[in-house]
Amino acid sequence: MKRLLAAALAALTLLALAACGAPAQETQDGAADLPAPEEPAVEPEVPPAAEPETPAEPVEALLASMTLEEKVGQLFFVRVPAEHAVGDVSAYHLGGYILFGQDTQDKTANDLIQTIQSYQDAAAIPLLIGVDEEGGTVVRVSSNPHLRGSKFKSPQKLFAAGGLDAILADTREKDVLLRALGFNVNLAPVADVSTDPADFIYARALGRDAAATADYVSAVTAQMAADGMGSVLKHFPGYGNNTDTHTGIAVDRRPVETFETSDFLPFEAGIQAGGGMTAVLVSHNIMTCVDDTLPASLSPAVHGLLRDALGFDGVVMTDDLAMDAVAAYAQDGAAAVMALEAGNDLVLTTDYRTQIPKVLEAVESGVLAQSVIDSACIRVLRWKSALGLLDKVTP
Q1: CA nearest to 353, candidates 80, 118, 17, 20
Q2: Cα-flanking dihedrals φ and ψ of residue 93, to 5°?
Q3: Whole-number Å distance between alpha carbons of 155 and 13
Q4: For residues 314 and 379, what is the distance between their CA atoms, to the nearest angstrom?
Q5: Structural element, H or E, at residue 76
Q6: 140 partner at 20 to 30 Å CA-CA among 36, 97, 126, 289?
């Protein structure tokens, strides 16, 4: 009986030790027979976080929201029509209006302000409102005594009286007046180099050599940018001693070296000084050293020179396509199609009611690539953005 009790107690002791985790038995060489280490838990692979999408530039988002008709309309910077000016803003989705003397004459300041505001009120995307207020012989606003007591003086007269300081003071006064009336673009300064009083362009230019003209253009465009006024450098590639293209064809036979060492310098200076506030207007002169068959305004080669040699990526616009110098070159009357194919972003014309449908037809038929329209339109929108016109516009 005692043996049975002792055996039972021994069995219970072994069971208790096993339950409590008995010490490991030693191996023959004296080392403890340790339990095998547990395998570490395998962490599940976490996929890398997706790169956050770069938000679209506001003007890119706006472009993406626009119809073809709206994009094409933005490429037209046109003369104010005699009738239906307010209605045409929305009907043709116009990019802007340019006012001439007939649009400002006899108006009081309040009349002009209200008229311009009526155009802006009709626009889904605010308009470029431009004017040629160069001073001297081209004064669309200050020729009206209701708007200013005297006409703005020419750059030559200002420079003779007080140098660049007088020109900059005049530029500042001009910008303040134009902005108060509702203008956001002045088609100035004239960047042409002309020192011969016999030249057609002389009276509108500074009348000095390329270096002095470059200094003048740089100072004026910088002042205009500081004042929030859009500037337009004209008339690329440089008018020189050519005749008036309003009434006929001007053929410029000067070598390319003349342009590189003289005519281009004021444009390069203005582009650098004006930044995103500056556009370039291309003349209708035929630049034979680059393209002896087409006016500069319709020549892809001349526009390539402006983009590549001068590195300009802003808005390029034609001179007025209603001028006689381009009429003979327009295929089927579609001058605007040729202008956009050449590399212009803005078409200046009176005949927008005919030209806009021709551009739409060219895109829809595949004659004009959609990418051409998009590239031009985004430049126009960026210019408008730089001028502060898109601050309240949402796609």
Answers
A1: 80
A2: 55, 45
A3: 116
A4: 6
A5: strand 76-79
A6: 126
Cα–Cα distance, 356 to 364 (Å, whole number): 12
SS3 content of the chain, % helix, strand, coil (to 5): 45, 10, 40
Torsional sign, CA 121, 124, 128, 130: negative
The answer on pLDDT for 9 being more than 80 is: no
**Tens digit of each residue's pLDDT (9 = 90 or more) over 322-379:** 877 787 888 678 999 999 999 999 999 999 999 999 999 999 999 999 999 999 999 9
CB 131 within 8 A of CB 99: yes
Contact in structure between 90 and 123 (CB atoms under 8 Å): yes
Give the tens place of pLDDT for each residue, 175-214.
Answer: 999 999 999 999 999 999 999 999 999 999 999 999 999 9
Is residue 340 within 8 Å of residue 363, measured between CB atoms? no
Q: Which residue has the tokens 């362009």?
A: 201
In sequence order, the 6+-apart residues with CB closer than 8 A to the CB of 37 are: none
Contact 100, 140 (CB under 8 A): yes
Q: What does the pLDDT look like over 152-177, one tens digit per residue?
A: 999 999 999 999 999 999 999 999 99
Q: What is the pLDDT of residue 160?
A: 98
How many CB atoms lie under 10 A from the CB of residue 254?
17
Q: Which amino acid is at 268?
A: E
Please name the residues in contact with 386: beta carbons below 8 A apart, sequence gap of 6 or more. 230, 275, 276, 277
Cis omega before residue 235 (within 30°)?
yes
Other beta carbons within 10 angstroms of residue 176's beta carbon come to: 13
Assess contact for 110 and 128: CB atoms under 8 A: no
Give the residues across from 131 on adjacent strands: 99, 186
Least confident of 150-164, 243-257, 299-313: 243-257
If you average pLDDT over residues 272-281, what whole number do you get?
97
